């Protein structure tokens, strides 16, 4: 007698969904370029609106808006693209929150945290302490934010920012490159490099590549965005904590 074997629906979705089916959306590289243009234009707009008077520091509102608004707006456009030109973010961006994603995300996140810590120490010795700050760190330099603003900054850098960046780079860009039928390692490499370069911090590009590799591997080996989001959040915890403590004046810049 033939024994029938059943599989969970989620397993069927992963194993039976062909590569062509996963790439049946109508958006591609053009959509990613649109999102990047929105990101850059948003930065330029915020910089023009909140430009301080000569010799004056940035206001608290300017720091928060400059840190968060451009990326959030660009992420909204990315999600809208998947709705209007595809099957929605869950299908097009391979979004999920499974236990396997959490396990893989934490594993690659802690690996990334170790690599990032070592890389940051070596990189700081090469470029010097004065050039070692990230763009976010530079914003809070010499500015003691009120507690509410420092906490908002901490939560954004730790939790919200990684979600936005993963949607753009390991979601939209990854899906656009997959649609070109390039190998998955090429997709991983290109998305990692673009992720690093897109931060527009030339001195930190090599360090950002180191940061991006474990995060990209989480996306590569699971095939889903949830794992890379978790990995990114784990990796960002210590930098976010440092920004919080600097903003509060608890540790020197």
UniProtKB/TrEMBL annotation:
It holds the Pfam family Rce1-like. Residues 150-238 form the CAAX prenyl protease 2/Lysostaphin resistance protein A-like domain. The chain crosses the membrane at residues 27-50, 62-84, 104-123, 143-161, 182-200, 206-222, 234-251. Keywords: Membrane, Transmembrane, Transmembrane helix. One of its GO terms (biological process) is CAAX-box protein maturation. InterPro entries: CAAX_protease (IPR052710), Rce1/LyrA-like_dom (IPR003675). One of its GO terms (molecular function) is endopeptidase activity. This is CAAX prenyl protease 2/Lysostaphin resistance protein A-like domain-containing protein. It comes from Herbihabitans rhizosphaerae.
């Amino acid at each position: 007698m033939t024994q029938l074997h059943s599989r969970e629906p989620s397993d069927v979705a992963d194993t039976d969904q062909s590569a062509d089916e996963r790439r049946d959306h109508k958006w591609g590289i053009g959509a990613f370029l649109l999102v990047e243009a929105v990101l850059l234009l948003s930065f330029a707009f915020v910089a023009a609106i909140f430009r301080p008077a000569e010799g004056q520091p940035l206001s608290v509102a300017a720091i928060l808006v400059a840190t968060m608004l451009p990326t959030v707006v660009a992420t909204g456009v990315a999600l809208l693209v998947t709705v209007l030109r595809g099957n929605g973010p869950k299908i097009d961006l391979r979004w999920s929150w499974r236990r396997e994603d959490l396990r893989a995300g934490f594993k690659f996140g802690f690996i990334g945290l170790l690599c990032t810590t070592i890389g940051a120490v070596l990189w700081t010795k090469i470029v010097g302490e004065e050039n070692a700050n990230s763009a976010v760190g530079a914003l809070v330099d010499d500015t003691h934010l009120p507690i509410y603003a420092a906490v908002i900054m901490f939560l954004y850098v730790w939790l919200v920012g990684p979600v936005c960046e993963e949607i753009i780079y390991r979601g939209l860009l990854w899906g656009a490159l997959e649609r070109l039928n390039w190998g998955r390692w090429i997709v991983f490499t290109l998305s990692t490099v673009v992720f690093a370069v897109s931060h527009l911090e030339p001195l930190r590009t090599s360090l950002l590549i180191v940061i991006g590799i474990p995060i990209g591997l989480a996306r590569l080996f699971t095939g889903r965005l949830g794992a890379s989001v978790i990995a990114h959040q784990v990796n960002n915890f210590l930098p976010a904590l440092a920004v919080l403590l600097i903003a509060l004046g608890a540790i020197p810049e």
